[in-house]
Amino acid sequence: MKFKPIMRKLSNGVTVILDPVEASTDAVMVCFQTGGQDEKPNEYGLTHFCEHMFCKGTKRFATARDAKDYIENNGGYTNASTSLSTLSFYGRIIAEKLSVFISFFADRIKNSVFDEKVLENERGPILDELRRGLSSTKRQQTEFLRTKLFNVFVPDGLVTLGNPQNIKSFTREQMMDFISRRMAANNCLVCVSGKIDDCEKIFKQIEKLFSFLPTRDIAPTKAWTYSPSIAHNYIKSAKNVSVEILFRDLYKRTLDNFYKRKCVSAFEHFFSDRLYDVLRSENGLTYAVRTMYAGNNTVEVRGIYTESAPENIARAVALIAKTAYRVYTKDLPKITDLQRYKNQRKLNRADFLEDNENRCDTLVNWWKDYHALYDFKKMCDLQDMVSPSDIKKYTRGYFDIDNISIITHGPNFDGDLKQIWMDNFNVNEELNLKSLKKSCLNKATKRLKESENKKAIKARENKKCR
Asked: 230-427 belongs to which homologous superfamily?
């Protein structure tokens, strides 16, 4: 299946990506590059509240039910979401109604009423969403990690969802001010992936419908900073202890670093496979092992996640450290391993090409990270070029002990995990052995030269005596 998307910057600064696909539907996303990480303390949760209000009625569709019925009558569905870095409106519709869908999104963003009565009523559902988030073990773990590693913390609440105090106090004026500051043509992307009969027609329609967005610069996101941490998040209800062993990412998320990051990813894939063999197949300590990363667009950490019973944690971390050292120094991926991963990627790439929602998401995320058009073939070729020698080259320093973080969640357990790691992973051991061998060789060479010199002196003395 072909992949030839087109990207164009409209006159007011809106970016548009059209991705023609052999399909009978169209996936559409309108994305603004602003989210929870851009909020000040008195704004925690404001982007998310605005997301809700954008879906609660316009001049054309008085209620959320009116809008939902309209889209469903035209063979589609729609939704919205808020993340750390984006506010997005998206959905999918039958191809013959694409123009209807684009008009619908433009109307929602331009003409949402933000009715005072609806706003008051919506506080309840948003507070309920926050309570559900606060009771989620997964969300608790994520927030604890962000607090300890990046000093990102929302008192009594959650990043992107906010806290009860803010949710109860937000006003319509505050929302309108926030929208005027954080939503503009310059940080807006409209992406369509699916059946597109006439690209120029769609470009013109989007140009006309989204011309209301102002052209202005948006203040950049405040950078996060990483502070290595060893910390335990006590969760009384948990039975297992979750373990996250993380290190600062070696390479920033830039196009120039794409190949290096793929070498690191291949290393992590191989490492997690070996850990699965050791922790589950050989020692029966855990159900699963996976790679993980955390952070935002300014700083990232990468590493390993697993979980087990409290009495297994010290042993599990020791085995992870030993396996990490072995893989890092002696057991790097081979050509056969990389070929296996390549064959697995062929299936994933086929799924990607055949799924217009997946294509739309990827195009949007690529634009968000790099402000460029995703070049599928080039990125696939670079990924397939990864070699054992380059994996070794670009993963040196991965397990930097000065950057290690070990975050655990669940019941209490015994053991100093950082010390356990250091006792079982000694990256300098190989260097020390080489240094020792070199020292021994130098001493042996010195002794040999001294012996030869003594023989030469003795030979000269014997010659004089004769």
From this structure: Metalloenzyme, LuxS/M16 peptidase-like (3.30.830.10)
